[in-house]
Design a protein that fits this description.
- By secondary structure, the protein is mainly α.
- The protein has helices spanning 17-30, 45-52, 56-68, 87-111, 114-118, 136-153, 157-177, 183-199, 203-224; strands at 42-43, 72-75, 79-82.
- It has 9 helices and 3 strands; from the N terminus they run αβααββαααααα.
- Helix 4 (87-111) crosses helix 6 (136-153) and helix 4 runs antiparallel to helix 9 (203-224).
- The protein is globular and about 55 Å long.
Length: 228
């Protein structure tokens, strides 16, 4: 199935049906590349009900919860749509993410254990600048996990909470752009330098490298990405 369409997994028994429906639908939306120009953003309630294997009631409850979180918008007599931010909003989100993640990196140099910092290698060591083009999908996922891990290693729950609120859209725009303008190759080099700074507990350098890395994403989006 195309990555521009929702990948639906039937809902099994367990927990409440509403909760399971919510989690499954949120996962499907989160994994969709919503900033690709060809992404299918309109949701069909009857189709979702059939593909999830649930009745309309838990589905509507799940959709209402997702609307309250800003992931979908229910428009009377028109339908249900996955929310896509404007370019200006995306640029602001990336700016805030840069501030949050760079501070998390700063904190990680004093708060994270050596083993925790070493765990970052799981997300970078399997990739090289020469071969990344052949593993772009896998690298895109590892890239996202790398940044999430840094946020967590800062050990500040509020930073993690604020980053989670931005994650859906920042993740989507990273996925959209990772294969453009040799960004993946540059990303691999950046990640290696960031990990080296973290492991040597070079606080100022780690903070600066993480901030500059994310701001390069912002610069790329501003120059090259059209969002209608």
């Amino acid at each position: 199935m195309s990555e521009l369409q929702l990948k639906i997994v039937p809902i099994n028994e367990g927990l409440s049906l509403k909760a399971r429906t919510y989690e499954a639908l949120k996962a499907a939306i989160t994994n969709l590349n919503i900033y690709d120009p060809g992404a299918e953003l309109k949701l069909d309630e009857r189709d979702l009900s059939e593909r999830f294997g649930v009745s309309r009631t838990p589905l509507r409850e799940a959709l209402a919860q997702l609307e309250s979180e800003g992931l979908v918008k229910i428009v009377a007599r028109r339908g249900i749509y996955i929310v896509r931010k404007t370019k200006s909003e995306i640029l602001d989100m990336i700016t805030v993410w840069a501030a949050l993640e760079s501070m998390a990196a700063r904190l990680a140099t004093t708060e994270a254990s050596d083993d925790d910092l070493k765990s970052l290698h799981e997300h970078i060591d399997a990739f090289s600048t020469d071969a990344v083009a052949q593993n772009m999908g896998e690298y895109s996922d590892a890239n996202i996990r790398f940044h999430q891990t840094i946020v967590g290693l800062g050990g500040c729950p509020l930073i993690s909470k604020l980053a989670d609120e931005l994650f859906f859209h920042v993740r989507a725009i990273r996925n959209r752009t990772i294969g453009e303008q040799d960004r993946a190759k540059r990303s691999i080099v950046d990640h290696q330098e960031i990990v080296a700074a973290l492991e040597t507990r070079d606080t100022d350098r780690a903070e600066r490298l993480v901030r500059e890395h994310t701001l390069r994403l912002r610069e790329h989006v501003e120059k090259f990405v059209d969002i209608d």
